[in-house]
Write a structure and sequence with these properties.
Blueprint lengths: L1 E4 L7 H13 L6 H8 L10 E7 L2 E9 L12 E7 L8 H15 L4 E7 L3 H5 L4 E5 L6 E7 L4
Antiparallel strand pairs: 1-2, 2-3, 3-4, 5-7, 6-7
Amino acid sequence: MELKQLSECPQHFECIGNWIYEEWWRTPDNSPEIVFEWLRQHLECDALSYTIVAIVDGEPVGSCCVIENDCALRPQYGPWVAAVYVKPEMRLRGVATGFLGRAVAVARDLKISALYIDCWAKTAPVYMKSGWEILERDVGEKDSVVMHQSIDCR
């Protein structure tokens, strides 16, 4: 499995954008183009907003984004891991663990001291295996937790 920033593999831009649209942004008043516009900032190298892509045999199998804010209820935290996706047939194979580790490594290079994620409580164990800790429970209207991972930037 290869782990690359989207800026290193822009040929996968449309695939990643469609995943994000289908999983989280599909509404009657949205279109894939809205996601593509938002995702274009992830094509810049060494920027705060970036996307990590997991690639197997030349094809993307999962991704996660790092963005300034993904939880309006917690503006004091950031940056955030968001839009974590692994193709169903590739789940439970370490894909998410891989790209989360790369997301932390990029954050370290950018001198970011912590990352946060707002996720369903039932998915928290996936992140805990990668060193994330629960910071808050029952945030917002869903059964969610805010988690964080401290990063040593020395």
